[in-house]
Amino acid sequence: MATRHTASSCFTEIWIEFICPLLQVQKILRERLCHQQLPEKPEGLEAQHKHLLELLKRTAVHGESNSVLIVGPRGAGKTMLLKCVLRDLLEETEAQKNLLQVHLNGLLQTDDRIALKEITRQLHLENVVGDKVFGSFAENLAFLLEALKKGDRSSSRPVLFVLDEFDLFAHHKNQTLLYNLFDVSQSAQAPIAVVGITCRLDVLELLEKRVKSRFSHRQIHLLSSLTSTQYLERVQTQLSLPDHFPDGQFAQDWNDSIKTLCRDKSVGEILQRHFNSSKDFRSLHMLLMLCLSRVSVAKPTIKPIDVQEASRVCFADATANMLRGLSILELCLIIAMKHLNDVYEGEPFNLQMVHNEFKKFLQRKSNSMYNFERPVIMKAFEHLQELELIRPVDGSSAKTQREYRLMRLMLDHSQIVEALQKYPQCPTEWSTAHLDPMQTWICCAATLQEKMFYYPREFLKLGQMKGSCATAYQIHVFHGNQHYSLKQGLTLTWGKKTWQLEWRMIFFFFMFFMDRCCDLSQQKLSLCCVAGVTVRCRKVLH
Amino acid sequence: MAALSQQPGYEEEKLRKVTELLPCRELQAGFLLSVMGQPQQYSYPSIFIYGHRASGKSHVMQVLFKELELPHATVSCVECVSVASLFEHVLLSFFGYEAASLLPRSPSLSDFVRIYRQQCSRSPAKQTRYIVMEKSELLRDADANLLPALLRLQELVEDNITVILLSEISWDKFRPNTGCFEPLLLHFPDYSKVELQQILSLDRNPSYSAEFYSSYINILLGVFYSVCRDLRELRHLAALNFSKFCEPLAEGKVKETDTHKLWRNIEPHLKKAMQTVYLREVSSHQWEQMQQMEKEAEPLRGLSAHTHVELPYYSKFLLIAAYLASYNPARTDKRFFLKHHGKIRKTHFQKKNEKASNHLLGPKPFPLDRLLAIFYSVVDSRVAPTASIFSQISSLVTLQLLTQVSHDDQLDAPKYKCAVPLDFICAISRTVNFDIVKYLYDFLQ
Amino acid sequence: MKYFGRLRVRRVYRWSEEPLRFNRKLKTFDYRSLAISVDGLPGVTVITTGQHILIEGKDEDSPYVARVMRLFGDESGKQKKASIRWFIRTSEIPTDKLKLLGREPHTQEIFYYQSLNCEEEVDVESILRPVQVKHLDSAAPFPDSDGKDTLYVKLSWDCKAFMEVDSTVVESMSEPALTYSLHPHASRRKPSLPPLLPCSPPAAAPASRAPSCHALPMPDPSIMHRAASGEARYTTEVESMHSATKLSASKCLSAKRRNASSRTPGVRKKLELSSPEKISCVDAVDRLLDEEPEALLAQRLSSSPPQALPLSHRLTPLRKSRRTPTSQYGVPVSPSLVLNRVSVSDINGHTSPSKDDASRAMTPSRRHPKTLRIPTLGVLAEVIDEKSQMMPAATTPRSSKRKSAQLVSDRIRKQLNLLDNHQELNSDCEDEEEFVPSKKELQSSSEGEEESGLESDEVEVVAKRNRRIASGSLTPRSKQHTRSSNRTPQKTPSKKITISTPRTPRHATPSIPSRSLPARQPANVLEEARARLHVSSVPESLPCREQEFQDVYSFVESKIIDGTGGCMYISGVPGTGKTATIHEVMRCLQHAADVDEIPPFHFIEINGMKMTDPHQAYVQILQKLTGEKATADHAAVLLEKRFSNPAPKKKTTVLLVDELDLLWTRKQNVMYNLFDWPTRRHAHLVVLTIANTMDLPERIMINRVASRLGLTRMSFQPYSFKQLQQIITSRLNKVKAFEEDALQLVSRKVAALSGDARRCLDICRRATEICEHSSTTGLVGMCHVMEALNEMFSSAYITAIKWAAVQEQLFLRAVIAEFRRLGLEEATFQQVFVQHQALCRVEGLQPISVSEGMAVCQRLGACRLLLLESSRHGVLQRVRLNVSQDDVLYALKAD
């Protein structure tokens, strides 16, 4: 079987080389996007690159001990930076001949014993045979310290220690390893450079004070200050093919198509959205990867639609997706819980209450579905718990019966709404009964009140809103047979809550609610139907 | 979206085979393949696939890898009790026994990575290697470093490898506290009603016509779909009840086409099935027996079967007393159990709001003496507090009709809770013709 | 002699007469004779200086043999001590060493024991009784034993080889240590004893003595006395100049210092510090010496030609030559001599010719050196006193034509001109810059040896190696290490086996491979400055800690001098030079010990952070003490035994315990032992403990431990900005790289924050780098320092928020808004998310899905701008800020 693998694969390789440039494209771009292939030079990190390179060079050439931390959020290119620096460093023979490297990763070397063995292994000290390391933990430590102590600045080879996920090393017992490494780096023993990589800004607080004192407080921060235009350029460079591409003509076309793609408006918006949500390049790579995966022989370029699709996949709300797959019974239970949450301000509930609520609802509403046996409901309930859509309250003991165990709903209102809209043949008439729009308005309005209080800027915005259109409308909401009309100083009561609302606010949040549920353009409010709520807006003439 | 059939780099006929092996999952499989790319190309380091149970996650993986002959290791996190077994399994399925034997006794992640590197430096990957972790939500309970390490395994072992996590839970609840390499998220939606019908119709009994079977499936779904969409469950139920469905046909009462009669015949049966087989209260074997017995027009033995528990006379009263004790507020005992309670006006006992209902909040613990007090007032004949009474209490505890809430160390004042539901206690009290509802505070009108 | 030991009769010791004189330095009275009376027995034995005595040893059958040099006691008269020279029995010499003797030792034979490593002061209580010792020429046969109590001395043993011993050591010049002449009635007083002045017949006198007598240029009594009293030392120096030439410098200094009146430790320190690498060189050599197993060496030498040997064995000539100095009247180094001596003795071992001609074979090579030596001694003495014109004196004896003789003589010449170029050094030996060239010259001169003989290449190798090590081990750390490795307790010779043969089960020698290309030396001023500012670079002196230095020094010194034990607890925040100071102290003391101002001692260091578990402390101490390896428990037992049992030849041990708090265990037995041992009577143990917190004893120690720690505490205050400034300036002395105010800024800033010297130096280093890049004026100015300070001290939070993505910033705002709404510092994600959505509206952004919001939130959590519950709680997970709200608002307002 293995032989057949090789045979087929090498055949395909030949095929790639000479016949299909598209596969070549896939190959190259995948290397970039999936395998974090190093760029020629780290864009936007030149300064840090220079700094680090100088530092390591001094260690390699002058035998000057040093210690430095590279700090930056995930996907900011810390490892990439280091790799680039090492690549450039090893181009110099002087460094390359001398430098010894030890690479550790906090994920792998989970305690000092393992870490020490790994170090000894990578340094090829004498107590290593093959890849077996002899001696106990204590002996290994003593041995390593001895070795480092023997060395001196001028004569022995400098050692580079790279500690990835540095913060995890700080959790080792007594931080023995860190202490000793830093101690060596601060005393005239074998010259070493300790480079830590971490994403935690508070990493220094993790260090014990004597360890901290031995660390030369050099930190290289990778806090990217890149703008959206640079981001766009980055995308383009990431997607475009290099010059050494075999099929020049194809490469030309491809790059042009990429240019046009990046110029496209919708694509621009999407990328802007990504940029807004995060600046790290890994997520970008994921997006581009998804786009790339949609390129096929039939469709040899990336179209805007691909980008849209990809971003849809990226931004999809996982929990809403899961909700969509629930059975009607389970969904009803969730709605019941939601209702309980609303009535008793998010206090925990148990199955009994939910069941009760559900029964009440069944009595109240249409007899569209017959009453379920309690055990069936129980089963549904437990399924929900398995899906971690509900979660037992920490305090509740296992001794209490299942139906009385207290639970919390782990869903946001918006998720439920979204799920209901997308839900196939959703029994609207009773699902919406629990999702009274007024509720949502009211809680939003409540939050808004504070916001206006705290944020004069937004208050100003609201003021403008009032000036522009707020006065122009008077709003009537018909829900079922109730009819709220929102006027000055309207008082609303729901559950136990009572609000004194300014109609301006309610108007604002009415709009907010409108285009949240069904996205319609703000200004022209016509007759529309949102989850069983009829809203009519009349122009009021002064 | 590139259709499954036209993925470059794979042989046509294989893909065709895959397509027919994966009904209603072409889209997902195609998407997956396009993300995986060609065997020798790099693939995304880690992919996270989530979807409801029995939405074909593992199945798709299995079929793809088996049919396309890709090097892969499939691990179910339920099976590997320790990381050791996980590592061993992976090494075994990629490099064979001698590699797996290299692992030390209690291997750490670094050992695994080291050995993996050695091996793959000896036999470099021509094709992308895949590790599939089923039920990966269990990884969160393993030691904290495992999940992040797996997510960036490609980087750690410097090999063309992709880790695929399968789970029922959304990725948001996975993220470790200091972040990690974000995997590629992929959702497997559950089968729609139509798809279910289509799939279920596949395993029809050849002796009957396709539309007959599909009509059966239709009825089945009509009953069960609103409750469960789990394909496995439905197939099980379908297999169980089909014989019943066919009975009238066998007896020649109805024709295949007469769907309505068939429906009237099977419908109550299915409802019953929902209350029994579906809940696993009876095994499928018992279920078939019950079907046989129905011929003798036995009374239905559904859930109500459980309400008949044979207890000694006093134990029944003890249980009733316990129920009253745990669902009535202590202050109301006077009113219920004192003689000449006629004087006291009911107005004192206006019910509080819904929330306060004890039947919602569950049983409250009560001390032993209160139980006994109620017991004596409830039971009509005079009973001496003999040892037998106490032994019966303890036996009720062992039957788990009562639960002892207070710790065992405090012997002087043990506290109990009544663990039986309302209908159960009603049934019990009916046997000793004691109208319990009169004595329950919640049902006071 | 048994019954003495058996029935433990109480003996009474008292001075038989008035003190002769009072020794100011040591506060002791010198006596001439000591009377021992045993109650129950009538007779009174009187011990006089110069007499041979038996000292109670481990077993009564073979008590130690020694010779009284001085008898003295303190003012109180309680302590009666005797300073002695040890003799060693054949039984005490390890059997494999006896091979070197090349013949069967006589039962009554003893050897003059000359190794510095056992203390020469014993309590008189341990004296059993006098014994008669006769000196025989090595050639002469043993007389049939006249009584069991007569012992015979032929050779001397320095735990490496046997050597001729001059009869004077044994018999004549009965009280060399004392300057007064013997009273005539001294012998009359104690008829019971053998005549103390045997005035050995010239026939019996060794051939080697005759020339030495008349070779003295002028019989100046003062010189005579000096030569007599200080022989050991001077010879040591002279020899060591041969062995490791650089050594001589420091020795010379020390010699000079000894003549000079006593100095304060401070001054010593200066002298000391001015030449650190020479000290380290001593140790380096020592280390080289103790690495080779003995037996191995011997057969190597006999079997294979030296050139063929690998480096480690080619060192052997050196070790020989190094050993000879420690012996009195040893032969001046010439590898040839050493070689042929050893080989000869080996030949005796294998083929057995009559040992006469063997010894005859030796004689020339032995005689000539002596003929040359004594004069040089005189010369040396002169030279050290005043500028000398002694060259002629040295050249006089160069008459013999033999090769070895020439070798030796030109060695002497070399050594002489070495000496006088030290002379002009001594005038300004404080200044190191001046010193360096002469050092070079020394090395060159040591290379000068290379034209002599076939074995020169070994010498060369050695020289090279020395230089390497000398340049290499600059720090107190490595110094301390080497010492602790070679200072091994030597209670009894039998112990020595464990030392001379490395018993480490692991054969691997830990080392980092040496670099293929040489390290580049600092090119410009800034690099120079950077090199000097590196924390590791050893300062010429350790400023701003004089007071602490004094205290520790006097503490340890006093303990060492009156061989008692004690503990000291030293606290202070990190980077205030605790460990460094201790190491300085130890270096000075060690030097003082080398020049015999104080009795020798071991220095051992352990560090709580450098062991995997508190109990490893035992293992490390034991290993550094004796080189043995043992499990923790076993080591504990051994140490317990070692510190609780009395042993006459025991040196004080100084134990430095760094990062004490890490030795804490639940039962605290490690700490307990550490503090309990010093209180034992026989454990000459001084424990110095270092930890960060001042009130450590109160906080973590249970009473029995704390009380044993005692009250001698000292706390190092953080450096003030002046001190920091001083430190920096002293570091880069003369290197003009910084502007004054820049330095001031740094030191002020650091002093305000932590007072951590390391921090200060690091900042300065960083500043130089920045200056280099900015490539402005050569000097490091304000701006650079400011930049460095910002880099190191400014927290990244603000910038992080400033550059965060829009949604992340929005989320932070939402968090604050929610906090203010709730009036709490904590909210669930759900609550915050509602706010977030509203804010999105307000900002006119597309609202984000919950998953996305969760991703944003957890991204913020990952870089610890937020503190989150575990993500399992989903939307219910609680959110906290890890930054102050004001910072967030400030950062957000900034853009």
Automatic annotation (TrEMBL), chain A:
For this protein, the record's InterPro entries field holds: AAA+_ATPase, AAA_16, ORC4, ORC4_C, P-loop_NTPase
CDD domains reported for this sequence: AAA
Q: Which UniProt keywords apply?
A: ATP-binding, DNA replication, DNA-binding, Nucleotide-binding, Nucleus
| Xref: SUPFAM superfamilies | P-loop containing nucleoside triphosphate hydrolases
Q: Which residues form the AAA+ ATPase domain?
A: 64-225
GO terms, biological process: DNA replication initiation
Task: Write down the Gene3D superfamilies for this protein, in alphabetical order.
Answer: P-loop containing nucleotide triphosphate hydrolases
Localization terms from the record = Nucleus
Cross-referenced Pfam families: AAA_16, ORC4_C
Tell me a Gene Ontology molecular-function term this record carries.
Answer: DNA replication origin binding
What is one term from the GO cellular component aspect held by the record? nuclear origin of replication recognition complex
Subunit note: Component of ORC, a complex composed of at least 6 subunits: ORC1, ORC2, ORC3, ORC4, ORC5 and ORC6. ORC is regulated in a cell-cycle dependent manner. It is sequentially assembled at the exit from anaphase of mitosis and disassembled as cells enter S phase. Interacts with DBF4. Interacts with POLQ.
Q: What family is this protein classified in?
A: Belongs to the ORC4 family.
Q: What is the protein's given name?
A: Origin recognition complex subunit 4
UniProt lists the gene as orc4
UniProtKB/TrEMBL annotation, chain B:
Key word Ion transport present in the record? no
Supply one GO CC term from the record.
nuclear origin of replication recognition complex
Instruction: Cite the Pfam families for this sequence.
Output: AAA_16, ORC5_C, ORC5_lid
Q: Which InterPro entries match?
A: AAA_16, ORC5, ORC5_C, ORC5_lid, P-loop_NTPase
Q: Does the keyword ATP-binding apply?
A: yes
Please indicate which superkingdom the organism of origin belongs to: Eukaryota
Q: List the keywords (alphabetical).
A: ATP-binding, DNA replication, Nucleotide-binding, Nucleus
Tell me which Gene Ontology terms the entry assigns under biological process: DNA replication initiation
Name of the molecule in the record: Origin recognition complex subunit 5
Q: Which organism is it from?
A: Echeneis naucrates (Live sharksucker)
Q: Which gene encodes it?
A: orc5
TrEMBL record, chain C:
Region named Disordered: 246-274, 346-371, 388-408, 426-520
Q: Which SUPFAM superfamilies match?
A: P-loop containing nucleoside triphosphate hydrolases
**GO cellular component annotations of the record:** nuclear origin of replication recognition complex
Domain BAH residue range list: 45-168
Record key words, sorted = ATP-binding, DNA replication, DNA-binding, Magnesium, Metal-binding, Nucleotide-binding, Nucleus, Phosphoprotein
Chain intervals with Acidic residues compositional bias: 447-460
The record, for Pfam families, names:
AAA, AAA_lid_10, BAH, WHD_Cdc6
Report biased composition (Polar residues) as residue ranges.
Answer: 485-503
PANTHER family (alphabetical): CELL DIVISION CONTROL PROTEIN 6-RELATED, ORIGIN RECOGNITION COMPLEX SUBUNIT 1
Q: So what family is this one in?
A: Belongs to the ORC1 family.
Q: What is this protein called?
A: Origin recognition complex subunit 1
Q: Could you tell me which species this protein originates from?
A: Echeneis naucrates
